[in-house]
């Protein structure tokens, strides 16, 4: 591979040129890590039919290096295959690599093992940059040969993501720029920031074209656009994501296309965020922080033009009409609607109580004080903390530095739930006594944006009785993200359905399973009526979470995860198991509210 290749895209005098000719970027975001790889080509073809000439994707560092020094670019993580597919479909590629991506993705894409040992993320701190360099040494050889300068589809590369709203380390931005170019990235480099002078100033670096992120901020972007740079919105928010406990955010097609048309009329380029949102499978959903944690739901549908299962909405057709005049020939035909499984229902059958599931996992560490997820090597999910306690009459139990949600037991009695901020306590038995304390802590999603990015999970300080006396002597069990399938005590086995009206005893919580026989494999939407807060596996794959606080009511289960014949669904609910699992023919995202953005 030649190191003297020239970029295929250049910018000057407010214009982008592609191989020497004036060019507009008409892009949409599709994240390979949020789409089953068997569906990558389908989603890319839908994007091309929308009239896009470019696909943009982040590269999530923590998706590829979950354990330090162990890199994976195979299967679902084969980002080079995704890029090649885009080129075969006829799309250019806008690569937005790590180290930080935001994206409402766990920890903003930064590996938990790195944020767990340094608080100087996204700076020139040598320890942080050493990890970035090691990562780039693995990542860049995957993507550099796929640049247009070498016959591939990559034509743009983002240096960092919205850095101007986070920090002010100019040396860091320059370091990342040089880290890319020195490893052979020759195509056009960009940054992306919000529409304030402060963000643009702190997020820019010489030799790199600045772009913007906004929902309706075309006039502000025009005013901030620097001499010679092409006007481009790298994230035009055509919809928005959801947090648990909020309403489902939507943006009308008229509102979205109004901003797109305004940008195109001003001579600008656009990348719609998201064109196809996909799904935060497993525990990959991130969280925001606004005085308290705001965890993101499993769905990343984002009211996008191409829905979570590939359904094409009004926004798709509005964009197709807006983009068509910028193409010399006819656009690809509009693909057919995706197939869905017919409605069905199956009873949930109890398998084990929650405590029996917890104690089926081995003790992995002992410590005088509770250890964080990071100290235990736990990326996400659940960790159980256990200790023998004594307590006086009328005592309370509290957690200092809880991240994020704890289900608490004394022996086999469920005391209740505490959440995040640690300002609340639970009452212990009034007469005093002793017992085995079990605290099952769930990470609700690592913070992906702002100064709390990288915050640890688990119990950060300690457990206290009556707000002052520490509990010492802890055992830890890491449940991980695999199907809870370890042997459990015989007394916990059951072949009876979960009661229609689950009681607040241990038998109504924990592990249950259902089975569906499928003759025609297709997409499905799963619902868990009566369930309170659970995790769901389909044929061994962790789909994500459901939570009765909403807004999301159904989980997307893509066709490649199903098989002809019997399919097993396993549910682990920490609060209240429902009595059945339903296949629904339509998704339900809950009550909606209009979002436009600035």
Automatic annotation (TrEMBL):
Residues 370-476 form the Beta-galactosidase 1-like first all-beta domain. Keywords: Glycosidase, Hydrolase. Residues 514-567 form the Beta-galactosidase galactose-binding domain. Belongs to the glycosyl hydrolase 35 family. Residues 481-504 are annotated as: Disordered. This is Beta-galactosidase family protein. It comes from the Bacteria. Transmembrane segments: none annotated. Residues 17-322 form the Glycoside hydrolase 35 catalytic domain.
């Amino acid at each position: 591979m030649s190191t003297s290749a020239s970029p295929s895209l250049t910018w000057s005098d407010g214009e982008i040129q592609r191989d020497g000719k004036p060019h507009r970027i008409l892009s949409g975001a599709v994240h390979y890590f949020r789409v089953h790889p068997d569906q990558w080509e389908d989603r890319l073809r839908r994007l091309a039919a929308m009239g896009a000439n470019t696909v943009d994707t982040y590269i999530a560092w923590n998706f590829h290096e979950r354990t330090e020094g162990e890199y994976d670019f195979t299967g679902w993580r084969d980002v080079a295959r995704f890029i090649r597919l885009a080129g075969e479909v006829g799309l250019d590629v806008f690569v937005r690599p790590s180290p930080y991506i935001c994206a409402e993705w766990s920890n903003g894409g930064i590996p938990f093992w790195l944020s767990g040992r340094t608080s100087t993320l996204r700076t020139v701190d040598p320890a942080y940059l050493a990890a970035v360099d090691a990562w780039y040494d693995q990542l860049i050889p995957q993507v550099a040969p796929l640049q247009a300068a070498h016959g591939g589809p990559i034509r743009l590369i983002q240096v960092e993501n919205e850095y101007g709203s986070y920090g002010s380390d100019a040396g860091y931005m320059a370091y990342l720029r040089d880290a890319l170019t020195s490893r052979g990235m020759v195509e056009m480099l960009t940054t992306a920031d919000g529409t304030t002078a402060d963000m643009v100033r702190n997020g820019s670096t010489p030799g790199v074209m600045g772009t913007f992120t906004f929902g309706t901020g075309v006039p502000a972007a025009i005013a901030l656009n620097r001499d010679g740079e092409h006007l481009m919105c790298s994230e035009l928010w055509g919809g928005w994501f959801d947090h648990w406990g909020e309403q489902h955010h939507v943006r009308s097609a008229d509102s979205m296309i109004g901003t797109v048309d305004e940008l195109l009329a001003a001579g600008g380029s656009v990348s719609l965020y998201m064109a196809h949102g996909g799904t935060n499978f497993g525990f990959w959903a991130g969280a925001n922080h606004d005085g308290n944690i705001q965890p993101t739901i499993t769905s990343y549908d984002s009211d996008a033009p191409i829905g979570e299962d590939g359904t094409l909405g009004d926004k798709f057709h509005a964009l197709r009409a807006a983009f068509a005049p910028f193409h010399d020939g006819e656009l690809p035909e509009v693909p057919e609607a995706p197939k869905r499984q017919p409605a069905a229902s199956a009873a949930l059958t109890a398998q084990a109580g929650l405590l029996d599931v917890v104690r089926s996992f081995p003790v992995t560490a002992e410590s005088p004080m509770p250890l964080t997820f990071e100290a235990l090597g736990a990326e996400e999910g659940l960790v159980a903390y256990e200790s023998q306690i004594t307590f006086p009459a009328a005592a309370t139990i509290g957690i200092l530095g809880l991240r994020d949600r704890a289900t608490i037991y004394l022996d086999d009695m469920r005391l209740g739930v505490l959440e995040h901020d640690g300002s609340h306590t639970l009452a212990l038995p009034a007469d005093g006594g002793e017992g085995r304390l079990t605290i099952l802590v769930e990470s609700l999603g690592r913070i992906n944006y702002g100064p709390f990015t990288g915050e640890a999970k688990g119990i950060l300080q300690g457990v206290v009785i009556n707000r002052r006396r520490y509990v010492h002597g802890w055992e830890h069990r890491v449940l991980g993200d695999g199907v809870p399938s370890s042997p459990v005590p015989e007394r916990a086995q059951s072949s009876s359905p979960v009661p229609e009206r689950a009681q607040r005893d241990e038998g109504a919580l924990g592990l249950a399973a259902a089975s569906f026989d499928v003759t025609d494999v297709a997409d499905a939407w799963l619902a868990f009526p009566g369930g309170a807060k659970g995790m769901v596996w389909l044929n061994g794959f962790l789909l994500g979470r459901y939570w009765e606080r909403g807004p999301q009511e159904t989980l997307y289960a893509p066709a490649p995860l199903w098989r002809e014949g019997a399919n097993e669904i396993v549910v682990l609910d920490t609060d209240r198991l429902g009595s059945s699992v339903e296949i629904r023919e339509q998704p339900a995202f809950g009550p909606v509210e209009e979002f436009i953005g600035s």
